[in-house]
Design brief:
The complex is a heterodimer of chains A (about 300) and B (about 575).
Chain A lengths: L1 H19 L12 H31 L15 H30 L6 E8 L2 E6 L27 H4 L2 E4 L3 E4 L4 E7 L4 E4 L6 E4 L5 E5 L5 E7 L12 E6 L1 H10 L3 H4 L1 H4 L12 H15 L5
Parallel strand pairs in A: 1-5, 4-10
Antiparallel strand pairs in A: 1-2, 2-3, 5-8, 6-7, 6-9, 9-10
Helix pairs in contact in A: 1-2, 2-3
Chain B lengths: L4 H6 L17 H6 L4 H31 L9 H37 L7 H20 L30 H29 L12 H32 L10 E2 L2 E2 L7 H34 L7 H14 L17 H27 L8 H24 L1 H7 L3 H31 L5 H28 L16 H34 L62
Antiparallel strand pairs in B: 1-2
Classes of the chains: A alpha+beta (about 300), B mainly alpha (about 575).
Chain lengths: ~300, ~575
């Protein structure tokens, strides 16, 4: 009896909690409303199954509790019932998969006119690279990285000369334009994660990964790292600002390019060995990030 | 298979194999320490697994203290926090759950339930335990080396697991990888034993389709483990080579502390594929024995045959097969080719069908039963609810597009703790309350059992159900502290405090459970041979606990399936598998 009541409370209580709890997804800021739809469909289909099964189980436990004068039923199998249950479940699975895979198809199909932006992660900071007027990012390589070429851009690639470099500062995105985020890690795994965008993807050293989105509302959002990357993982933060076009262009004009920031490297002059970024610099970067994060929400 | 009592007796083959010569212990040491009796090995495995599991439990308290009350405990810094997370995960998944279900329950129950005198390779079985113990000690040793244990997360993803910036990259990670290699070697010895014993040593009349589902679950889980663990083994060895010999299996060209590192062209993704090719079957290595145990306990305590036995067997086999083609659903945001998403989402959701059928069949076994709400039964009901919850959130994470926002958030943590933390642990409790009388001849204390059940069941639901919603908010997992954000509300901090307090309360209930076990071994109420009026062979032994060789002079003959409860026209509400047809009243 107690158990049956507790099961009912848990089943019904979970639904009430779902409806009334203050904790739910952040307001979306990208075109991935289809993801939220898929989540809602999943909640409906599985929520109904959850409540029905729990209530039925509670009913059985109450109704068929032990009595000395009763004997259990004897029914080893019931093919008809088992097939019905199989097909109902299969139908539920199809109902979950269809909207999911349709949305996934959009997710993996990057629009041809998407802007090519680059996110560069390293322990424990975010940097960004935007293409110049040519709309193309120059090729890059980790082994080309020096103090004077922190992104490792290939100076021989003309596409790279006018690339806009954003180091340790906020990333700005234009509103309403599809953007392909090319993700590159210089050291370990990271994950570019902005909760309001819904989309996220790992940065994997040795390869360039990507996802795409269209920002749908202006505002300033936190960038977090969502793939464990060492002791500074939780402190690897930055900010992305979605601007309308005028504000975005105004911001963009103030940014400097590879050629203007690092004229020596851009001209292809080799660095003298020993001047590359040493451990001490990384340390400084880490301690700044830690200071940033020590402001807790309390 | 269920009704024809007369047909059953005709298919019993004559004894073709002579009795094997059993190993006989000659001294105290060979009887209790270096013992080759599966029952003693089972207890050795269980005690070791529970002991290291308690270490994992304490680590979870430390972790939750930091999450619930950041800035309060000065001895927890980011390094030690990530070490707790890592060691907690690996200990619980591999060294507790895998070892306890297969090494513990497998060893105890397989020979008894199939009517064998012992495992077929007793010496190798003994070695299996001692290598497992060695692996556990190596793992534990990493707490005491300079730099401490590894803090790479239990997934041990390179490059980070062996690169600067992660705790324990000089001692801890090496000991972890070596320990895993030993664990797998030890497991392989035990695993081959379980499989061959099930296939070769069943007593007369014990056809495969008469085996209790516990044996089916452990049998298929062991096959999965034998096929899946090698992937982890090579991943561990290759990572060791990258770390110690400078190879580049998983290590690409990358910066180390700002300078160009020595590696080039390795693939971090390759490690993830190897890890999850092991890692996903691992979920079912833990879940399938739990499925089997639950089926048997529910049937016994509801006095009703398990509903749809054949479907249950084929569901176990189907789940086992499918579990090898779903692994990359752990990698939807890993940067692998995104087109894999279509395939792995589809296979992952297909596996939900046989899994759901098993769940329906447990509930349908309760339907029209005569349910004794004993402690084992209570835990089984709690398991069904918890597993249902965890299975459903699995449908969120398995569906690739839904996984994208939820991946690497607290939703994932809540999901896998529900489905492969709490759910199997509830089954372990059910199993211990159910089989403890056979192992010790005494019952566990009922009142303490009730306390343990209610606190554990309700407490863990209150811990993990709300935690999913932190994931919807967007709180990432593996964060030492969330710090300042614009999207996490104040109330989430209060929720984190609540969860931490519940964790400590549930943890306390486990201490009561351990005390109950120790007390009951000496003072528990005597149980008799078959306190639950169960049909399966382990309850029909001549002595309790069963002596060396399990059964008396003659091995039992199996006349029927394991679920002959409440058969119409028969006076008793159960017929043991070995009761000759002419003796049924």
């Amino acid at each position: 009896m107690v158990l049956a009541v507790v099961l009912v409370i848990l089943g019904v209580g979970s639904v009430i909690f779902h409806i009334w709890s203050p904790w739910w997804s952040t307001e979306i800021a990208s075109n991935w409303g289809s993801i939220d739809n898929a989540i809602n469909i999943t909640f409906w289909i599985t929520g109904v199954a959850y409540v029905v099964i729990i209530l039925f189980m509670a009913y059985c436990i109450y109704k068929y509790r032990y009595r000395a004068d009763r004997r259990a039923d004897y029914e080893p199998e019931n093919n008809k019932l088992e097939w019905w249950l199989t097909w109902i479940t299969a139908a539920g699975v199809v109902g979950l998969l269809t909207p999911g895979l349709l949305a996934w198809n959009d997710f993996v199909t990057v629009p041809k006119d998407a802007l090519q932006y680059e996110v560069v992660g390293k322990q424990w900071e975010w940097n960004f690279r935007l293409p110049g007027k040519d709309g193309k990012l120059g090729t890059s390589k980790v082994s080309l990285i020096t103090d004077d070429n922190p992104f490792g851009i290939n100076p021989k690639d003309p596409n790279g000369q006018d690339d806009v470099l954003i180091e340790g500062d906020d990333l700005h995105l234009p509103l309403g334009v599809p953007i392909k985020m090319n993700l590159r890690s210089l050291d370990v795994l990271h994950d570019f994660y902005v909760p309001q965008f819904r989309a996220k993807m790992d940065l994997v050293p040795g390869m360039i990964t990507f996802f795409w989105l269209t920002p749908t509302r202006t505002g300033s959002f936190d960038i977090l790292c969502a793939e464990l990357c060492g002791v500074g993982h939780h402190a690897m933060r930055s900010t992305v600002v979605v601007d309308d076009k005028t504000a975005f262009n105004k911001w963009l004009q103030k940014q400097e390019t590879f050629a203007t920031l690092y004229p020596k490297s851009a001209a292809g002059k080799k660095q003298v060995a020993g001047t590359s970024a040493g451990p001490s610099e990384v340390k400084t970067v880490f301690s700044t990030s830690v200071t940033n994060s020590s402001k807790t929400i309390r | 298979m269920s009704n024809g009592v007369i047909e059953d007796s005709q298919v019993i083959p004559a004894a073709e194999v002579e009795e094997v010569e059993l190993y006989h212990a000659k001294s105290f040491i060979t009887k209790w320490v270096f013992c080759q009796d599966a029952k003693v090995i089972a207890i050795q495995y269980s005690v070791t697994a529970i002991a290291i599991g308690l270490v994992g439990l304490v680590l979870s308290w430390l972790m939750r203290l930091q999450l619930g009350f950041p800035d309060v405990f000065s001895f927890i810094d980011a390094e030690s926090y990530y070490q707790y997370v890592t060691m907690h995960g690996m200990i619980m998944v591999v060294y507790l759950l895998t070892a306890l279900f297969l090494g513990g329950f497998g060893n105890y129950l397989i020979p008894l339930m199939v009517g064998a005198r012992d495992m077929v390779f007793p010496y190798m079985n003994m070695l299996s335990y001692w290598i497992y113990l060695l692996a556990t000690l190596i793992l534990a040793a990493s707490f005491f080396v300079p730099g401490g244990p590894t803090g790479a997360g239990w997934t041990l993803y390179p490059p980070q697991s062996i690169s600067e910036g992660t705790p324990g990259i000089n001692g801890g990670i090496i000991l972890m990888l070596v320990s895993l290699a030993f664990f797998i070697i030890g497991f392989t010895m035990g695993g081959l034993n379980y499989v061959v014993t099930v296939l070769q040593a069943r007593t007369r009349g014990m056809t495969l389709m008469r085996m209790p589902l516990t044996v089916w679950g452990i049998f298929v889980a062991t096959i999965l483990a034998l096929l899946a663990f090698p992937a982890l083994f090579v991943a561990a060895i290759m990572t060791l080579f990258d770390k110690l010999l400078g190879t580049s299996f998983f290590m690409p060209e990358m910066l180390v502390q700002g300078e160009l590192g020595p590696h080039e062209n390795g693939s971090p993704l390759l490690f993830q594929h190897l890890f999850w090719f092991f890692g996903h079957p691992e979920v079912y290595i833990v879940a399938l024995p739990a499925f089997g145990v639950v089926s048997d306990i529910i049937s016994t305590h509801a006095r009703k045959n398990i509903f749809g036995y054949r479907m249950m067997v084929w569901a176990i086999v189907a789940i086992g097969g499918l579990s090898f083609i779903v692994w990359a659903h752990h990698m939807y945001v890993s940067g692998m080719n995104p087109y894999f998403g279509f395939f792995f989402a589809t296979t992952t959701l297909i596996i939900a069908v046989p899994t759901a059928l098993k769940l329906y069949n447990w509930v349908l076994t309760l339907y029209k039963g005569n349910i004794h709400l004993t402690i084992p039964m209570l835990f089984c009901v709690a398991f069904i609810l918890t597993f249902l919850n965890g299975g459903i959130t699995g449908l969120f994470l398995g569906n690739v597009i839904v996984d994208i926002p939820l991946s690497d958030t607290m939703f994932v943590v809540a999901h896998f703790h529900m489905v492969m933390g709490i759910a199997p642990v509830l089954v372990i409790f059910a199993a211990i309350y159910h089989w403890f009388p056979k192992m010790s001849g005494r019952m566990l204390h009922e009142g303490w059992g009730q306390f343990h059940f209610w606190v554990t069941f309700l407490g863990s639901y209150l811990i993990y159900f709300p935690m999913h919603y932190l994931g919807f908010v967007g709180v990432p997992r593996r964060y030492f502290e969330i710090g300042e954000t614009s999207f996490v509300p104040e109330s989430a901090v209060a929720l984190n405090e609540f969860i931490t307090i519940m964790v400590l309360i549930v943890g306390f209930a486990q201490v009561v459970f351990i005390i109950n076990i120790i007390w009951s071994v000496f003072k528990g109420k005597p149980s008799g041979d078959n306190p639950w009026n169960s049909t399966t062979l382990e309850w029909q032994t001549a002595t309790t606990p069963p002596g060396h060789g399990n059964f008396g002079k003659e091995l039992p003959i199996c006349y029927r399936w394991a679920y002959e409860y409440s058969l119409p026209g028969v006076k008793a509400d159960f017929i043991p598998q070995n009761l000759a047809p002419d003796k049924i009243k």
